[in-house]
Amino acid sequence: MALWGGRFKEKASLQFKKFNDSLPVDYRMAVQDIVGSIAWAQAIHEVGVLNDDELSRLTDALNELKASVEQDPKQILLSDAEDIHSWVEIQLIEKTGDLGKKLHTGRSRNDQVATDLKLWCKETGGDLLFALVNLQQAMMNLAEREKDTVLPGYTHLQRAQPVTFGHWCLAYVEMFNRDIGRLKDALYRLDVSPLGSGALAGTAYPIDRNALAHRLGFRTATMNSLDAVSDRDHVIELLSAASVSMMHLSRFAEDLIFYNSGEAGFVEMSDLVSSGSSLMPQKKNPDACELIRGKAGRVFGSLTGMLTTMKALALAYNKDMQEDKEGLFDAMDTWLECMEMAVLVADGLKVNRSRTLAAAQQGYANATELADYLVGKDIPFREAHHIVGEVVLAAIDKGVPLEDLTLTQLQAFSDTIEQDVYQHLSIESTLDKREALGGTSRAQVEKALASTQSNYQQGKEDILNEQVVGAPGKQQINVALKQVQQRLNAQRAAAMSVRRAKMSDVDSIHALVNYWADKGEILPRSRDNVIHDIQNFVVAELDGVVVGTASLYIYQTGLAEIRSVVVKQSAQQQGQGQALVQYLLEFAHQMELEKIIVLTYIPQYFTQLGFNLIDKHSLADNIIEDSEPSPHKDPDDEVAMEYIVGQGK
Prior knowledge:
Layout: H1 14-20, H2 23-26, H3 30-46, H4 52-71, H5 84-96, H6 109-145, E1 150-155, E2 158-164, H7 165-190, E3 192-193, H8 209-215, E4 220-221, H9 225-230, H10 233-260, E5 267-268, H11 287-310, H12 324-347, E6 350-351, H13 353-361, H14 367-375, H15 381-398, H16 407-411, H17 427-432, H18 442-452, H19 458-467, H20 474-480, H21 483-495, E7 498-500, H22 506-518, H23 527-532, E8 537-542, E9 545-556, E10 559-567, H24 576-590, E11 595-600, H25 603-607, E12 612-614, H26 621-626, E13 639-644
Parallel strand pairs: 3-4, 10-11
Antiparallel strand pairs: 1-2, 5-6, 7-8, 8-9, 9-10, 11-13, 12-13
Helix pairs in contact: 3-4, 3-6, 4-5, 6-7, 6-12, 6-21, 7-10, 10-11, 10-12, 11-12, 14-15, 18-20, 18-21, 21-24
């Protein structure tokens, strides 16, 4: 059954129907279409189109249909419906009779499909954020494992200067972090609801579109109906974010394909991500990485196709836009699959440390160090550069590395060279001199690792205190600990839908806080107090419902307290509480606060998050007065803890 047959005398040809129908692609939005329909039923009930009984019958039927689709989505493909909207309406009419025909009152497939697609993008975006964070963690784990492994660095695919394998891993951590930023930006901009925009001119019914948007989990409604139904910027932005990230994944794959080659022999891929040759039994091919590299082009193609489709479309909706979903769905599936495969690659990678060290020692990678040594002897860099070039030529002629040339041979090129030159030509010296922020020195890599790890484990502290005692920059390492860790934790929190609170959250925050206050876990807050301090609160959401909250109270320039960390009972054990605290710690870092305190009855919980016990009596009197003990608890059980922002434990 088509939704538009009244105007036509003849049926469409089967050939056209096959060409026109989108159900084989957009069936994936069935749940979103049903969720949007439930919200629309409530909206038109509020303006008198449906009575209470009709709303109840439609809602029950739609929820029943939603459960059926979630259990078996492929059932939809057995239908000859034109699209997912037609299929849902047909099923609804079968369940409720003529009542099902009333649901589309005031609504168009134009605003319906735009809403469905944005809902799908919001849900899929959350999965992609988690995948990116997991990929960052996999690279962090590999960096931790290989932080001391020397690796030749390359420019122009020529050996340049030695780095460490851990430093190489951290380069990709930074790339994937930018990917997270791009994805979050795209998800923020698409978080506006087009429902209620009609075909192009808006709906004739007095729908409260902002209330409708909030019911669907959007932050607000669109402002212009023409734009709302014809906008596909969110599709293009997601494809763009995917394309940049796939470019990063492709570079990651290309590096490892080269490192895995027989000519390099730096790494060996796990059997779990490799295949063999049907003819040559000795072959072990890096197929996972080659496929990641190849699939990047597929995602790029989807972006190019969508840009080309949209570039000359007059307002408002055009059927060309039906082509938005197939490329988007495929690109998002491909991106997610490639990220998950890259985690498998990183987890199973074996590094040949002796081979990487030998390669780093070849190719005269320490030539720059010799030039810097001469500069330290007051020789201008350009002159030093020329001298070292001549030294390298002589070493090549003799077939020896620079450090094997005798002092007499070196002094033939400059009499300023002395015996101390050899300490500057070692691999260790070459690495450890790169002490500036972001450099490849062992101290800097250690610093970045300690800062980025999402779970700060005692084993890492042991490594720092025992294995790097006396190393350059140890104090600097301690001062900078957790900075990137906080960033990664904040990314996780954002992926778990932790955000700054809004005025519309006041009642939810007030109810949550006072539920737990009644149980004696925290102090109560009045609604007026929540309103007054709303800028200090953050909330965690699940399926658009506020399930947790916490607040940051600032006492003075460098000091703040985390208060009122609570999570709804039904949402506990899912990481929401930790995500709230981690979000506030990153916010404190951005505000340049120095110390965060908590007064708590559960110190073990905050210990896991990097807090340390302190003497409660060391706190200022006003802090103790503000945080009077709960009447339901023994005051002696309450302890004070602190977190030094940007530092280790």
